[in-house]
Amino acid sequence: SFNTMADAIQTQAQVSQNNFLGRGQSLTLMAMISAQRRQFMFRFYEPYFFDSRWTLSLSLYNQEVFYPSQGDFGGVSKLSRGGELRFGYPVVRDLYLVAGWRISQEEVDVDNMFHAHLFKDGFTSSFTASALYDNRDNRMFPTNGMYHQLTFEYADDYTGSSIEFAKLEMTNQFYWN
Predict the structure, then answer these.
(1) CB-based burial label for 35 (10 Å; 0-12, 13-18, 19+)
(2) pTM
(3) Which residue has the higher pLDDT, 19 or 119?
């Protein structure tokens, strides 16, 4: 819930250019500012890296999130800065393999010890591997087909990370008339 009307105001701007400079690349710049969030993001996508079937994606971001006090629980602020570099390759029709490396710096400030175990600050350096299957008829407004993605992300001392984790994530979408 918002304490004042000013807390409910959100400003967002995004500029996205597909087929940037006529080369099939895409470029996105995004900013979002509100009482609880300040987020800035840059993304570049190259579908034919060095005129090959490899894809390249580069993302950079800076995000500040504020979780206001809720009664006795206190508030939390979190600052995240980082980026990700990903390479992909179409194995067979509609099936892609993607590998990437993500780095980020997390700074967390908590009002009381209740939230201390929920948020951790430090440096994260992780590797990701994904398999994507996409046979949708239209990627913007699909009416038929399916999209599946399985991603594994891993961070520990060997990847240079002060925060250690292993994460498996799966996304499934089905479309039909």
Answers:
(1) middle
(2) 0.79
(3) 19
